[in-house]
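DM from R.C. (forwarded with permission)

"hey, sorry to bug you on a friday — could you get me a structure for this? deadline for the figure draft is monday and I only need the backbone to look sensible"
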Amino acid sequence: MSFTTAPRPHAHFFTLAITLTALAPAILEAQVLTTVDDTNEIHLGAEYAFFAGSAVVAARLGAWLDPDHSAQQSDPGPFAQAEAVPGANEIHLAAGLGIALDRLQIDLGVDLSERRDTASLSAIYSF
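My reply, with the result:
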């Protein structure tokens, strides 16, 4: 079993000034301050690799915390607030399986969370 450490991911976001137009005459040219706070993500994972004949097989498990980094509006009006619905922290569970042969490597990974599940498949062939 092997454990790897990497620098902690840090997402940098910025502040935007948005001019709303055309929704209703009352809010034409209203200045709204939209902010997205910087955040740190915490990742934890492990990989177990073993030989299966001439192939190397790797099984991976992990989890990570995706802190809320949704846009927040400074305008208390209903139109501005509808554009920036508050989010929530989200925990992701991840798993993967990889196999490396002499000239071919195939990796499959999944990332499961409350709002979205993602699967990835990659293949590398060396000439």
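R.C.: lifesaver. The helical segments are 78-83.
me: no worries. The chain has a mean pLDDT of 76.
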